[in-house]
Amino acid sequence: MKKQAVIYNGLEVGIAVPVDDRMKFIAVKFNVIDLDNGIFNSVGDIRLAIAEHIASEAGKSVDVTASDGCPVAVTAGPRRMQHCIG
After folding, report:
1. How far apart are CA 27 and CA 45, in angstroms?
2. What is the 3-state secondary structure (H, E, C) of the chain?
3. Cβ atoms 22, 41 nearer than 8 A
4. pLDDT greater than 60 at residue 65
5. 85 contacts 78 by C-beta, under 8 angstroms
6. CA–CA gap between residue 31 and residue 14 (Å, rounded)
7. What are the φ/ψ torsions at residue 80 (nearest 5 degrees)?
8. Are strands 11-19 and 81-84 parallel, antiparallel or unpaired?
9. 20: left (phi over 0), alpha (psi -120 to 50) or beta
10. CA dist list (Å): 2 to 5, 43, 53
11. Could you tell me the pLDDT band of residue 34, with boundaries at 50, 70 and 90?
12. CB-count exposure of residue 22 (10 Å: 0-12, 13-18, 19+)
């Protein structure tokens, strides 16, 4: 694993830095600062967390692609749901 930019909706929102066999997220945009220093299994999992976070902040649903390439619908609200839609 190596350091890499994390891009969401065409914007660089942070970087992923390897920590042991996982990835640490360092936020560079304010709208994802709540995820700063989070430890994730993969960059795909970071992107999924970003999508979920942004959806919950906006109170709506978003579609993203998980690290395994499966499109995922993330629905905000008290009963957040993530499911493969592909």
Report:
1. 14
2. CCCEEEEECCEEEEEEEEECCEEEEEECCHHHHHHCCCEECCHHHHHHHHHHHHHHHHCCEEEEECCCCCEEEEECCCCCEEEECC
3. yes
4. no
5. no
6. 11
7. -60, 140
8. unpaired
9. left
10. 10, 11, 24
11. very high
12. middle
The two structure tokens encoding residue 54:
């942004």
Greatest CA span in the chain, whole angstroms?
35
pLDDT digit string (tens) for 16-30?
999 999 999 999 999
pTM listed for this prediction: 0.68
Q: Which amino acid is at 84?
A: C
Task: Answer for the pair 72, 66: CB distance below 8 angstroms, yes or no.
Answer: yes
Contact between 7 and 15 (Cβ < 8 Å): no
